Amino acid sequence: MRNEEVIALLYTLADVLEIRGDEELFKILAYRRAARSLEDLAEDVEQVRREGRLRRVPGVGEAIAEKIEEFLSTGRLEYLERITDGFPRGLLEMLRIPGLGPKKVQALWRELRITTVDELREACEKHRVSHLKGFGERTEEKILAGIKLVREASGRRLIAEAWEVAEQVVAHLREHPAVARVAAAGSFRRMKETVGDLDFLVLSSRPADAAKAFTAMPLVQEVVASGDTKSTVLFQGGLQADLRVLEARSWGSGLQYFTGSKDHNIHLRTIAAAKGLKLSEYGVFRGDEPIAGDTEEGVYAALGLPYIEPELREDAGEIQAAQEGKLPHLVRLEDVKGDFHAHTRLTDGVNTLEEMAAAAEARGYAYLGLSEHSPSLAVARGIDADTARIRKKEIAGFNRRSKGIQLLFGTECDILKDGSLDYPDDVLKEFDYAVVSVHSHFQLPLQEQTERVLAAVAHPSANVLAHPTAVKFGERKPIDVDLEKVFEECAQRGTAVEINSGGNRMDLNGAQARLARGRGCVLATDTDAHSTAELGTMPFAVGLARRAWLEAKDVINTWDYERVKAFFR
DNA sequence: GCCGTTTTCGGCCCGACTGTTTTCAGTCG
Asked: What pLDDT band is residue A25 in, cutting at 50, 70 and 90?
């Protein structure tokens, strides 16, 4: 997969052109739009190119397609080399500093010959920067603070991590007397697997008090900006958050606007303009007259559209589907009847069988699959066939006693390097079901890795392919595997494909899971829980399923116990 | 550079906050 390289290339092109300042802005925006679009592409860009489908990617036209072609085939881009001739790469790093945009970076470069972040810091400390036109003493201070910030901040983080902060903030604001309504918007509300910052909205008749309640929270490390309707803070730990204060008549349009995505909103505004309307966070207007804004449903209705669920708002076909009345009825958390991927103390979990069963029952589940590791995964104390048989009896005993939840006797069986499974076939047949996973040899080349996984999912005992890319956020890159081929084989063989919300995985992501469904697969939303608490990450797995346009029928965790058993058999 | 129920040319989403300015440019989302 070279998607990341191509995305970085396009962003670099845009940044360089913007600092150089000799191209018109829309050209630069076009590169960024194409880059964002590729970020949401589930497929391997090289394969898309091989099949001549580059120009079908939204925002990729003739010129960008040609540049991607050249870069993929030669590893270089002549155009980039030409425009970066004599262009200091350090300027790109300077652009990351909050408050510094292309114009200021350009001025620093042209006027003061500053080409690196270190040179910039030194110039600020010597107060050489404040003399420049458009700069001042406050700017110098902000740049110095910004340099520190960039060095500390770590960019996007997993939604599970942001979730804890968001819940605290929402609870805090909800209790405040000046606040009538609270919502968290942004990519958080869209349930994107990672979020860059948090966006909070409040309805208040006393905006200043509401803003103060936000900026004065103990969690706040620094107030970056604070105005009448908008404040920005930095939480301890480096997560940035915005608060917007809305009026009741703009609650729906504000929620819609700040939920995004950017490209979804741009598309909506285009539709509004075509109807002679104007859409902003304050409402939908015909001339100066507001015709919608108090509810999100009303905003969409004013544009002639049904309500679109936040998880779909990526400008990935959902607006067209809405226009045609073809939006999916997304799977909901309440539809989930169980989990197929969980561990107990028998291997590397922390809770007992009974504790896990009780926690699952408390979540309202009808069943819970216990899938312990197989022998090869020694670090997780994978169990041999004899120990598995003891577990089988424990589960049978539990199920006889239980008046409610039923346990399934599963295994998370390692896929070995050659694609064979970690138990002999006759042992595999003793389990109710098998989840199969890659836990080793992450570096195999594309073809070998693909053949390995294809062999595993084709095994008659394989029921669920767990965390198919093996990615771990901030820790491990995805394995090189042809997901389309794997999905096609899974569909053919009746092997479900997993969306795993455990640890720092979030694997598959939304776009990949959508591709899986498109190839005819059914999916499983699993937590890979190693404790009772971790069963609670199910909302993130379901969130990804919703981002993948999945309906309840597509997700085996929503099926009843008998149907699941029959599917596994 | 992209794209099409206004268009193959001429548009391209819209507004808040900051700091430096005396009316606004730059930055950000």
From this structure: confident
**Region class of A220: left (phi > 0), else alpha (psi between -120 and 50), else beta:** beta
Nucleic strand B near CB of residue A238 (< 7 Å): no
Q: Using 50, 70 and 90 to split pLDDT, how confident is the model at A157?
A: confident
Nucleotide with smallest C1' distance to residue A58 CA: B2
Q: How many CB atoms lie within 10 A of CB A511?
A: 18
Q: Is the CB of A99 under 7 A from strand B?
A: yes
Q: How confident is the model at residue A152 (pLDDT cuts 50, 70, 90)?
A: low
| Cβ neighbours for A463, distance < 8 A, ≥ 6 positions apart | A433, A434, A435, A495, A496, A567, A568
pLDDT band for position A227 (cuts 50, 70, 90): confident
d(CA A308, CA A320): 11
Give me the residue label for tokens 């050659």: A418
Covered bases, chain B (protein CB within 7 Å): 1-3, 5-6, 11-21, 25-29
| Nearest Cα residue to A411 out of A397, A423, A400, A398 | A423
pLDDT tens digits, one per residue of A164-212: 899 999 999 999 998 999 999 999 999 999 888 899 999 988 888 889 8
* DSSP H helix total and E strand total for chain A: 24, 17
Q: Which of A373, A378, A365 is nearest to A341 (CA)?
A: A373
* Contact in structure between A494 and A525 (CB atoms under 8 Å): no
Q: What span, in angstroms and rounded, lies between the C-alpha atoms of A460 and A494? A: 9
Instruction: Tell me the mean pLDDT in the region A77-91.
Output: 90
Q: What is the pTM (predicted TM-score) of this model? A: 0.85
Dihedral, A413, A419, A424, A427 alpha carbons, nearest 10: 30
Residue type, A105: V
Helix (H, G, I), strand (E, B) or coil at A97: coil
> Cα separation of A481 and A448, whole Å?
8
